[in-house]
Amino acid sequence: MTRKKKTRSLADKVTIRTGRRKDYKKWRHDNPDQVAPSRRFVAKKQQQRKLQAVRKLARQQSGQDIAIHPDKSSSDASKPKGDDS
User: Fold this and answer.
1) By the 8 A CB rule, do 51 and 58 touch?
2) How many whole angstroms separate alpha carbon 10 and alpha carbon 33?
3) What are the pLDDT tens digits along the chain (85 aa)?
4) Alpha carbon of residue 9 to chain centroid
5) How far apart (Å, rounded) are the C-alpha atoms in residues 50 and 43?
6) Closest Cα to residue 15, out of 4, 23, 6?
7) What CA–CA distance (Å, rounded) separates 5 from 54?
8) DSSP codes joined into one string, 16-66
9) Which among 29, 27, 30 is positioned nearest to 13, based on CA atoms?
């Protein structure tokens, strides 16, 4: 007796399928509320996003500071805002 191969595919869990891919695609299109990503996929993506945020923060902190308008910052600090004289 042959064993059925284990799969994480949602396609095998749908009972209305007739064994054809287009039938599953049609069912998925008609029932979007019943189709959701697996918990494993969601957890994996959350972890990837966390790592991406940590790497981005590390890049920002390790980068050098640059003065965008070095000459304006010292002279504008002493003047009040709205005074164009």
Assistant:
1) no
2) 14
3) 677 666 666 666 666 556 677 777 888 889 888 888 889 999 999 999 999 999 999 999 998 888 888 887 555 555 556 555 5
4) 21
5) 11
6) 23
7) 38
8) S--S-HHHHHHHHHH-GGG----HHHHHHHHHHHHHHHHHHHHHHHHSPP-
9) 27
Residues 6 or more apart whose CB falls under 8 angstroms from that of 73 comprise: 67
Single-letter code of the amino acid located at 62: S
| 8-state DSSP, 81 | T
d(CA 79, CA 49): 44
In whole angstroms, what is the distance from residue 44 CA to residue 54 CA?
Answer: 16
Gap between the Cα atoms of 19 and 12, Å rounded: 9
Per-residue tokens: 16: 């209305």
pLDDT of residue 58: 95
